[in-house]
Amino acid sequence: MGLAADDEYGLEEGVELPKAQVFYSQYEYVVGYYGVERFVETQRQDGHTQRFGHPQTVYVTDYSSVDLELTTDGYPTADSGPAWTNGEDAWFVHGSDARTPSGETPIPFSQRDDATAFADAHGGTVLAWDDLLDERFEIDDASVVRDRVEGQHQDADERVDSARELRERPVSIVVGDDTETIQEAIEQAPENTTIVIPEGEYEETLEIERPLTLRGDGNVTVRGDGTGSVITTTADRTAVVGLAVTGSGSQGSQRGGEAELPGTENETGDWDETFERNYASGDAGIAVHTANQSLIEDVTVDSSVTGVLLRRSGESVVRNVTVHSPADWSDGHAGILAFRTPGVIEHTTVYDGRDAVYSHHSHGLVVRDNELEGNRLGIHLMHTSDALLGNNQLREQSNTGIYIMTGPERNAIVNNDIRDTEQALSPGGSDSYVAENVLEGNNVGLQISATNSIYERNVIAGNEVGADVQVLLPTNQVLENDFVENERHATASSGPLRVWTDDGSGNYWQGAVGFGDGETIDRAYSPTDPVDQRLHRVDGTPTLAQAPALEALAGLEGTVPGMRTGSIVDLAPTCEPNNPELLERTAWQDRAWPCDSAA
Amino acid sequence: MEHESAQPASEQSPSTSHLLGTVIGRELRTVVRTRTFYLLTAALAAVVVGITWIGGGYAAGYLPTAVDLLTPLELLVPIVAVAFGYRAILADEQRGELDVLETYPISPRELVLGVYAGRAAGLVAAIAVPMVLAAVAIAVTDTDVLAIYATHTGADSPLLFARFFVLTVLFGLVVLAIALAISSLVSGTRSALGMSIVALVALLFGFDLAIVYGLTEGLIADDSLLYSLAMSPLSAYRGLVLETTVAVASGTGPQVASPIVSLFGFAAWTVGSLAVAIWSVGR
Q: Name one GO molecular function term (chain B) (predicted).
């Protein structure tokens, strides 16, 4: 753990990042860490020993075994694959110029002389293992993401405000008065002015190459000829406001990576260039290529493939856009497609598409306040880190509401409302923050598919399976969520014991028995236990669960957590729901009864 | 049965109640004379009062004390009950008294019921002493509660504790009947002890674990769990206490237990065990 797949692909040849692999007493697999600092910080976490047991042996990359140099970024490179050495006997250069994509990293050597020589050349001090364990490292973990959410919203507000200023450009041309066609107006209008399009239907395919604002006045429809994208812009600060678009070509994403793309940056040499040529070459209602800080607002697209396509158009804003997808979802690609475009997508509505919002490599993308209905995937992130997905309403996606793939880092998924979907929320990757979401009436509510992440204050109600653990590494914090009226509150198929209690805070589990002191219940709850899992729905289980035989067994298992596979336990279940306001939005508020109080 | 047919002139024999009274009196004298029973009562009292004290229940009230005492009593009452009963009939047999009694105009039913009643009186005392002590401790230390004889459910009151007491006594009597059955089936002290331990393990752990297994494997359907629980005396007792004493406050959620079915379970175990004992003595 500790490195996004995207960063891994992006590394230059020869880069050999320092790694640690750890053998634990109660965890059957070897756990690998990118950067020794990742292990140092992780082993300090609450509950780490409880889940993994004690580290028995730690191996670290041995740079004494290779010819070590640093790139300009500070990444260590080696002439060959470095060997491993026992961490406890190694020497570490701490505070040098060496970096990983995640930040500062100590460089391990088996030979002290090599460490000293490295420190002389690149700065830092030489530390033994025990001293290194006492050091603190700044790692952008999920708590950093949590702290970031508000600021990211504010940044997005500013970007939106800034983009919306494009609406205020002075009017230079009124189509129909000054020119016959919109395209003529685009050719003639001075830069940074507005072209007004009066009410009517225009059969045109538009290409914008200079910074202009197109603004519909009344009921305006631009109808393409059924080939290519209807409106294509390659100019920074383009604005398309207040019109309907229809009639694009039906060419979907292509194969082979041969397609020429509009705009600049056709040959980037990036690792995902082939993807880019394939995915960003499909036809769209509005195609925005290498046009930074653009605005698409108050637009309706009757889509044949993709509604709005954004490629390498950072800081662009898509706002109040409605996309009607092709009748057969398999003909379509995305409602809104963001390729290497960390923009803002807000207040949009996408119906019945393949992916309502699809993002590739758009680090820092903000997707908020959207309504996505009847799509296959609601929001689909690939290779996208640091994104904020907030306040989205997702209904009846046939596959997944929010699906984050390819192991990105530091995504925030906050305050979304996902219902009636096959699986509601699958936040892959790591160091992500999943909070205050309402997941109701889904087949599977929350997939615990991101590691080192915080899942807190979500309401998970009325699902077949509330939460399903998919990751093997038990490194998540799961707390203050409310599980109400799910057929199964939570499941885990394999892997070691997951402790869903953090710093004394657990979750609300409808049906959990035991007696409360007003806040927490004195009896642990295990949603994977055959009796506990039935507590909220089967008559008699409250009696059976409190049998001395079961209490004795639970106590025994509690002392050797590593022995239980596929288990989840909450050591401090809460007496009452933690998020009554969110719960009020579901149909199950009345079914969230408090625990018995003996006091 | 044989000896009854040997005594056809039953109108000349003493009345059943007189016979029963004689047997009960004899059993009571045995109980009073047996120091082990005092020791058991004292030990139970020490545990109950100790838990009341340590758990802070005496200050918190009757209901918290009942909650604290439930699991310990689940474990200890069967042990005490078995101690009271596991040799009751065996001892008669070992001393040859059964043979003597067979010459008397007394039926196996009268004998077993008499022994049961006599031992039951002792067991009730052994359960009552600790629980009354605990109740007194709560009463004297918690003056607030004493004033509130609330009749509505959910409130803490001595009535809830009294209910708890009655259910505990009933539970003890069920296990005593089982112990009597064991006592009538075995032939020696050692086998009596062995059988008793097996029965205790089954009672305290076996039945409940079997129910969990059945539930996990789908042998017990979710909607028949209430009935399965009533078949385990321990779970029946726990269910009765939770449903009628502790969990009266929460009205939502699944039913904790079915009191009627649980009481039926109690009755079935008691009647069944005594029937086994009567049959065994009459052999």
A: ABC-type transporter activity
